[in-house]
């Protein structure tokens, strides 16, 4: 990340906020990286010769005469097969004590796949979890988040899914992971002997929040290398996207942007879509599947973050503590995989969807007080028995 | 001479340009970045500074980079070959682009200039013509594609010569016109039109006269949409917005469907790419793709082009309308378009309206919806653009600016409801909140009476009222308890459930139930209302429930059976036994 020799160095900051600094500079490009007092920063705004930089590591201790040098390029990642098995921070620097990765330097946050060149997702991703495989089957090229309250074991479930999934590479993008969770992932991957197919980009809660903004782009740049160049099936795990969105709102707030719903930036939808839409089934067999975590506040899905996420992703997996079994389950009623019909009965048993419907119906039976007592009626094999019990049916009223 | 300028400020895709000469609002410009030109549109001018929204990523752009203004607004290229195409929001042909990734600054031609078309002249030398008059016709697949006097031509012209019937490419001069001053003007098969300006060139825009059949019962019978009408579908995620819209796209009775995937999931568009070449249009028996144009600006494609995509789609519809065709425009979702406006307004540091949306949002929405409609062309024929947009309200709350702004503009409202979706009552269109203003139009009422039967509108209103009463009864029963209310409450409640389950709900994934022709809708509604007209004597509410469950099951099985087939008739027989 050293400054290039020909770049001029500036030493006069005009303004400093908690996340940004502004200075007068010329000849710099939008999205270009810079080093401010030894900290990495990126240009987010230019107005005349006044340039505003977002400082990833926070502006604590940056003086007005800080040394600023521009790198002449946007964030990049060196990609090669050497990435496999390694742990990196948000800047792509190894944190596992290993050597620097050598390889081709690629810009992160690159262009989108031409929708016409995409293929329809059609390959099953088995996870060994009945609530997913049976009811909400995952398909390669899908993007789907876990909606979970912060106290639920979403990281464990995600690690399970990742290790059981039949994929070539797993890329972990950890944003605001607690150090314990980071070590958990590390141990889980090492313990499973799967390290050689895992690449991790981790920002822990000990590190500055704005750094998180780089994590998804880094993780997806690595994913694109394996999926596009190597035609591999890649699974990307992003946890926790709520903390990513919080970092977005911090930056937009410091840039005096007008907040929209829930003090999130007005561009939240596009910002999230840019990440999630990297999920793709490529024509040459490679694919990127994204499983993310969006933590909720007390199950509230109308908050801007889960709400925008739900409009972007192909379904959601709701984690819920189930009183019947005493376990955390993937809620069969509120969860949905929008792509499941692309593999159910085609790549799985022929009677998959009937078994699923029957299962959900049976599950609904003992506790008809829950959200929905309606089984999915998808075929003419529709029976009077259960289906006629409308949720607002008078028979469930209080009179005895 | 065209104006030039240089970049002096950049915030994401909003670029400030210092200009050397005059620029127009909405004028296009090219920003030179390395070896590529980035297309951008002027959205605000202050003194010699123009704020432009760039239709591409601005990564790497520098202050001082040169800008060239193009002296024109964003235009759609109109001519034979639009059908079956897949475009991005700026009408670049996605199919001819190279590589898997979209490259910045790569612009492809919307039409194939080499393809040869069979031309038949319609005008003859000496005819007096004006903009939008038909000069000739080519066969675009099954469709008669009229070659018209370009919409931009002002005043009247005299036809000097018309090319004889033959095979030409789109750039061939097919007619020479003489303008009022006597100068010759050449006309080819292609013309350009700025997308943000409505195409006029018709005699009048009367009130809608007919309904557009969709095969969806809750629409056609309960809340019909007029041919040339407008409607919108708001709903939280997971309520079946896209399924309902795709059902309308597949089954709508029209000649051309333009689907604008505006800021939505790319895999949904892939579904269209994959399925439409296989699916059959129920009205004509042709492949669905043969009547479809796809405008696709998915959520990860540049935000500014999202706004352009709905305008491009509307312009293509208006173009085919001027040929006397019935067009259906579906935009999924107009909220994403509004969000694109919000992002720009925000970057320009404008004072925000509600939820940080620009204050003129509702005016922009109404102007857009106003471009739909049925028109009488100069030659007396009619054409129409029916527009249905989906809205994705934040948090599923319908009291947000996009829904409210759209409600003022659209005449049909199909409210998708989380509650109904949770209960798997699909399509999750709330029967009480949803409406079609067209049901109140005397012209449409007359049409419905003639198309269905006398007294039809009254029947529909009666059924709607029964559903409303059922809801009231359910509330009462829930408060007072099953035993605390008279039996008639239960009966009324179950009659409303009967209408809901047997008529309003429809299985979009069942080959037979998915499409319900008007004749069948009429039969079913009459049958159901006949049952509702009876009064029953039940001993207790359990019996009442059991009885109605059986009735509903028979009717649903009828819906799943082929019309008038053996199994259909046997369920009807079962029903008759239940009723006797």
Structural summary, described in words:
- The complex is a heterodimer of chains A (400) and B (580).
- With 400 residues, chain A is an alpha/beta fold.
- Chain A folds into 2 domains: 62 residues, Elongation Factor Tu (Ef-tu), domain 3 (Beta Barrel), CATH 2.40.30; 308 residues, Rossmann fold, CATH 3.40.50.12240.
- In chain A, 23% of the residues lie in helices and 25% in strands.
- In chain A, the strands form 4 sheets. In chain A, strands 9, 13, 14, 15, 16, 17, 18, 19, 20 and 21 form a 10-stranded mixed sheet that branches.
- Chain B is of the alpha+beta class and 580 residues long.
- Chain B is 32% helix and 24% strand.
- In chain B, α6 runs parallel beside α7, α10 packs across α11 and α11 packs antiparallel against α12.
- The interface between A and B is large, with 86 and 90 residues.
Summarize the structure.
The complex is a heterodimer of chains A (400) and B (580). Chain A contains 9 helices and 21 strands.
Helix content of chain A: 10-25%
Number of strands of chain A: 21
**Radius of gyration of chain B from CA coordinates:** 27 Å
Specify the CATH architecture of the largest domain in chain B. Answer: 3-Layer(aba) Sandwich
Helicity level of chain B, as a percent range? 25-40%
- Would you identify the CATH H-level superfamily of the largest domain in chain B? P-loop containing nucleotide triphosphate hydrolases
- Overall pLDDT of chain A, averaged? 86
Q: Tell me what portion of residues of chain B adopts beta-strand conformation.
A: 15-25%
Average pLDDT taken over every residue of chain B? 93
CATH class annotation of the largest domain in chain A: Alpha Beta
What does the largest sheet of chain B look like?
9 strands, mixed
The number of E-state strands of chain B comes to 25
Structural class of chain B: alpha+beta
Q: What count of domains describes the coordinates of chain B?
A: 4
General form of chain A: globular
Q: How many whole angstroms does the radius of gyration of chain A measure? A: 23 Å
Poorly predicted runs of chain A are 367-400
Coarse shape of chain B = globular
